[in-house]
Design brief:
single chain; 14% strand; eight-stranded parallel sheet; alpha/beta; 1140 residues
Length: 1140
């Protein structure tokens, strides 16, 4: 087929798409009359009938700016959307008129040297099949058909399905478009543009890879992204698309995210620079703008991209691919992929009965269980001869797509049922199956569906003569099928999955003797002759009729041999899959004998061996004794069986307290040992503590009034005065209180006076002080002094990020009569208090503490005796001069209730899961590999991020500023000359003598420079919710909520910081670079070495007034809520972190 003119242009250069129509129409200040009256006010599409002159003017401005492609004003042009204004009947007229308006202006500008194009724009409608419902697939297809037909007939050059949030809508759209092509006899190139939300998927949940795989079959002119976000959120998705797509790629982002007044912050310069970055990486073919962009943006994009080369189309980027909500990009190393077989009414009685009872949601849970146990794909078969298969498929598909994200196998011989199922699946499914039993009849029935919806296809080795048993017949039928599918139907070899068939070895049927080996060799031959195709087997068929335990062994051994021969897919029950490596050699031999030397004798031996054999537990057996099981529940962090065994233990032990101090404590001791041995993570320890709390709560009702389950000792615990950080302290509370200690937790910002009063009242065995900041470490010194004056000398345990063993031994211990013990974390604290409270260990432990401190003091004395080096060089300013970077404005930007979904990509999961929740290893690799623990923790924090518990707010403002020696002078933004504040920063006393003030122009220079100040928070109400969860014994949930709020605040700080840098005209690309702080425009927070004075927070608060977003300053100059971040930002290119 001859190339379309637009394809010829795309081979030569990057084409420019126009910018926002809505933004330009808003700027026209149109009245209700312009739209056609009050009831039509806001219906942009109707302007094609009432004010075509305005639309013509907008199109002309974009063409003057250099746009190659002009989109028609038909985003909401389906009858469905127009009917919201009762204009559905005018859909054809409106769409045709819109094309005529665009066509007229485009033809004025178009020349043979520089052709311009009209894109018939088709929005996603106001319904989504996967999310909102409210419309059927067929109704939606009809709407798209009506619109597409009008756009084609009126003379569009291409069709653009844009802002696509749900692949099912896109599929309905492409079917409508195809029907319009047939009706009009005219086929146009089709562009598809998806919308990925900041959370990283479409609204309906697909990643960009799954989105592309699901639509690749229509061979679109381009696939790309638009709307939802600015370019920075699109980086990873466009990169993925560039790696996967064999077509052209489009990208037309919003001008950033809207601010509090609905204004988009990306200037033409900043947006074009970011898009240039994409083009330089070779990712782009079509570029433009969406919401908030104007002709100025398009002109800037055209200018920066004029010399950039377009992305070259790769021949092939992938082998076999299928998709559900998630993609499955197959390679040989993944063999064999498991197809879960239990959602099949023929093979599972449980599933069949749930379908008969109409319990579709419960039936879908079976699919979820298969995925949880390792199924890569799910097989769905509802062919019950006593029921309406079509109705069952419709009922079940609606539920299963909500439960599983993996690709689906639609297993039916009825093409109407197959098509119905495909109308519910966003992804590219596998159709199972067709064969040549009735000649080409099944091919002719099913292949049109493959072409329409996109699918891979299972092809059985059956022809008019029947099922192929020997290897050569299997190959012969496969080759004939291959030729038909690739040559007649144009199916890619990668989408063909041959089923070489297999037959049971345990039925004694003469004709199938030797067939097990024939199937293995058939796989080998098919893979050798047609290497790009795949193979599949229903493995459990081999063992039909044999004893249950024997079946599992035989299936595993046969699967092993088939995989060695090249099998790609295996249909199995993933919940009952025996591991080949775990099968004893003698049993492997029994299986091999039956498979490859099938006769009455081998069958009898195999059957006799397994006849009454029960499946033994392959994992370590649950302990047989009650005591053993109680420790086991604590260790496993499970409450299943706990209450029953606690009641059983009350029959064995004299008192409930003996149960707590016996088996339950032994379980907790083992948890501690495993944590210290790096075999458990923080999250798992918290789950164990939750089980312990539940056990104690259950037993307390049976205890005497004077009995105390916390009998090992008492602790008074607090975060010191001026410090609001309580996550670490809470961990100490949870760990100790569930290990037999009574903890009196005084909370945060606790003064020495409050502590002394409580200590006198409670008479604790030891005290715990926590604090995160450098200032908190000093506060601990003051607290120790006050304790000493009050005559308190019980042991103190101290911990927190700013503390060290050295500081503890040299500064705090110096001011106290009793022992001061440094604990690096809660588990070490537990170990230390156990030593402290143990009658046999206390003396030794305290002696070690004293000895360690003595050695430290002696070493410090020796060091102090050495002569100090003299500073011979006088501190001077060494930072080189840089131009002034002007911000876009100096007004105060307030962002209340900021969308958490927009901040999701900025949340550093490595810190959240790895540091806060203690996940060991490379977090991303663990998540990619589907590690159970990592996935569970990610799901927990994702739930919080998707709930309405977290409500981020923030603000920032630029201020004129200059340096005066080591001072930063801040001027009134109103006049840029009245000094309104002054910060004094320390200077390094050794080279390079840096000071934060050096990053600004000096007063003497006569040039005005700028700083930005910012505050963000994500902590409103978090502490109260976390406390409530803790009281309910939900320790992991409580800790995770606080941790998520902290990291969300950090993420918001990154987002706000990025907007500040955008306003200064700086660009950066990857989130990884952002987390590593590799960019111009560094931010500094008070309390860190370069600006250590927390008191400066008061000045920042005076300038910004963050009380408006619910952030207060404590007496100790800490922010409340704890999940808050403040900073000062400098634009100087050499600004970086340094110690003073």
């Amino acid at each position: 087929m001859a190339k379309h003119l637009i394809e010829e242009q795309l081979e030569k250069r990057i084409l420019i798409l126009d910018g926002a129509m809505g933004t330009m129409l808003q700027n026209e200040n149109l009245s209700a009359e312009d739209f056609g009256g009050e009831e039509l006010d806001g219906c942009n599409e109707n302007l094609v009938l009432t004010r075509p002159d305005v639309l013509e003017k907008v199109h002309r401005k974009y063409l003057e700016a250099g746009a190659d492609i002009i989109c028609t004003n038909t985003f909401g042009g389906t009858p469905l959307v127009l009917n919201e204004y009762n204009l559905g009947a005018k859909a054809e007229e409106i769409n045709k008129r819109a094309v005529e308006i665009a066509r007229k202006v485009v033809d004025e500008f178009s020349t043979p040297e520089w052709p311009r194009f009209v894109a018939g724009a088709m929005g996603p409608t106001t319904k989504t099949l996967s999310v909102t419902g409210g419309i059927t697939f067929d109704e939606l297809e009809e709407n798209f058909y009506v619109q597409a037909k009008a756009l084609i007939e009126a003379g569009s050059d291409v069709l653009l399905l844009e802002t696509s949030q749900d692949m099912l809508n896109v599929k309905a759209g492409t079917l409508g478009v195809s029907r319009a092509f047939e009706e009009t006899g005219k086929e146009l190139p089709v562009m598809i543009s998806g919308t990925i939300e900041p959370m990283g998927t479409t609204l309906a949940g697909q990643t960009i890879d799954a989105f592309y795989i699901s639509i690749e079959h229509i061979k679109p002119l381009s696939v790309g992204l638009n709307c939802a976000t600015g370019p920075e959120f699109m980086t990873d998705h466009i990169r993925s698309l560039a790696e996967l797509s064999t077509g052209y790629i489009s990208c037309y982002p919003n001008a950033g995210l809207p601010d509090e007044e609905g204004c988009y912050h990306e200037s033409p310069e900043s947006l074009s620079l970011k898009l240039k970055g994409f083009a330089e990486k070779g990712w782009l073919n079509i570029v433009g703008g969406c919401c908030g962009t104007t002709p100025a943006h398009i002109a800037a994009i055209r200018e920066v991209l004029k010399d950039e080369k377009p992305r070259q189309l790769p021949e092939a980027t992938h082998g076999h691919v299928v998709s559900g909500i998630e993609p499955l990009v197959y390679d040989d190393s993944m063999r064999p992929l498991f197809i879960g077989e239990r959602t099949n009414v023929i093979g599972s009685r449980k599933f069949k009965n749930l379908i008969i009872d109409g319990k579709y949601e419960e039936a879908a849970e079976i699919a979820r269980a298969q995925v949880k146990n390792g199924a890569h794909v799910i097989d769905i078969c509802l062919a019950n001869p006593d029921r309406d298969e079509l109705a069952d498929m419709r009922g079940f598909m609606q539920e299963v797509v909500k439960k599983v994200k993996v690709p689906l196998v639609i297993d039916s011989t009825d093409e109407k049922v197959i098509e119905e199922a495909l109308k519910f699946s966003q992804g590219k499914a596998i159709i199972n199956s067709i064969n040549l039993e009735d000649g080409e009849e099944r091919f002719d029935a099913v292949m049109p569906l493959v072409k329409k919806y996109g699918a891979s296809l299972v092809v059985g080795t059956i022809d008019e003569q029947g099922m192929a048993v020997d290897r050569h017949r299997k190959l012969e039928i496969a080759e004939r099928s291959y030729q038909l599918l690739t040559e007649k139907w144009g199916l890619a070899p990668e989408d063909i999955i041959f089923d070489p068939l297999m037959f049971p070895v345990g039925t004694g049927d003469e004709q199938y003797i030797g067939s097990a080996l024939e199937t293995i060799e058939g796989i080998r031959l098919i893979k050798e002759k047609m290497p790009r195709t795949l193979t599949v087997l229903g493995v459990s068929n081999i063992s039909f009729g044999l004893p249950p335990v024997g079946r599992e062994v035989l299936n595993a051994v046969y699967l092993y041999h088939c995989t060695q021969a090249g099998l790609d897919y295996a249909i199995v029950n993933t919940e009952k899959l025996e591991r080949y490596a775990s099968i004893p050699e003698a049993e492997i031999k029994l299986a091999n004998d039956l498979l490859f030397n099938t006769n009455d004798e081998t069958l009898a031996v195999f059957t006799d061996f397994y006849r009454d054999k029960k499946k033994e537990k392959t994992e370590a057996d649950i302990p047989k004794t009650v005591e053993g099981r109680l420790a086991y529940y604590i260790l496993e962090g499970t409450k299943e069986g706990l209450i029953e065994d606690l009641d059983a233990a009350r029959e064995i032990f004299e008192a409930p307290l003996d149960i707590i101090n016996g088996p339950l404590m032994e379980g907790m001791a083992e948890v501690g040992r495993l944590f210290n041995d790096n075999q458990l993570i923080v999250a798992e320890v918290l789950q164990s503590a939750g089980v312990m709390k539940a056990a104690v709560a259950h037993l307390e009702q049976f205890m005497e009034k004077n009995e105390d389950s916390a009998g090992k000792g008492k602790m008074v615990l607090a975060t010191v005065k001026g410090d609001v950080h309580d996550i670490g302290k809470n961990l100490v509370d949870i760990i100790l209180s569930n290990n037999g200690y009574k903890v009196v937790d005084l909370g945060i910002k606790v003064t020495p006076a409050q502590l002394i009063e409580t200590i006198r009242k409670e008479k604790p065995d030891f005290i715990g002080l926590s604090g995160l900041l450098v200032k908190s470490a000093q506060q601990m010194v003051i607290t120790a002094q006050d304790f000493k004056a009050a005559g308190i000398d019980v042991p103190i345990l101290v911990g927190g990020a700013a503390l060290s063993r050295r500081f503890t031994e040299t500064k705090i211990a110096n001011e106290y009569e009793g022992p001061v013990i440094y604990s690096k974390d809660a588990m070490q604290g537990l170990e230390q208090v156990n030593l402290l409270m143990g009658t046999e260990t206390r003396e030794n432990f305290l002696a070690e503490i004293a000895e360690s401190r003595q050695k430290r003091l002696e070493a410090d004395e020796k060091r102090a005796a050495r002569p100090a080096k003299e500073i011979t060089v006088k501190p001077v300013r060494t930072v080189k001069d840089a131009p002034v970077f002007l911000p876009a404005d100096v007004r105060r930007h307030v962002k209340k209730d900021y969308s958490v979904s927009h901040l999701y990509p900025y949340v550093n999961m490595r810190t959240l899961l790895g540091h806060h929740l203690g996940l060991k290893g490379q977090v991303q690799q663990l998540l990619d590999a589907g590690d159970a623990r990592a996935t569970e923790l990610k799901a927990l924090v994702d739930d919080y991020l998707q709930s309405d518990l977290l409500k981020p707010s923030g603000l920032y403002q630029f201020f004129p500023a200059q340096a005066d020696g080591d001072d930063v002078i801040v001027y009134d933004p109103a006049d840029s000359k009245t000094e309104i504040e002054r910060f004094t920063f320390p200077r390094q006393q050794v080279e390079p003598f840096m000071c934060l003030a050096d990053f600004l122009k000096t007063v003497e220079s006569g040039e005005m420079d700028y700083i930005a100040l910012m505050v963000v928070t994500a902590g409103q109400g978090v502490m109260a919710t976390a406390r409530q969860l803790k009281e309910e014994g939900k320790f992991l949930e409580s800790h995770a909520l606080q941790s998520t709020a902290l990291e969300l605040a950090e993420g918001f700080a990154e987002r706000m910081h990025q907007e500040i840098r955008d306003q200064w005209g700086f660009t950066d690309f990857t989130m990884r670079d952002r987390f590593a702080a590799k960019y111009q425009g560094q931010r500094f927070s008070f309390g860190y070495p370069a600006c250590p004075n927390l008191e400066d927070q008061e000045k920042l608060f005076g300038l910004l007034k963050p009380e408006d977003i619910g952030v207060q300053l404590t007496e100790g100059f800490m922010m409340e809520p704890e999940a808050s971040v403040s900073a000062i930002v400098f634009a100087h290119p050499d600004a970086r972190y340094f110690n003073v």
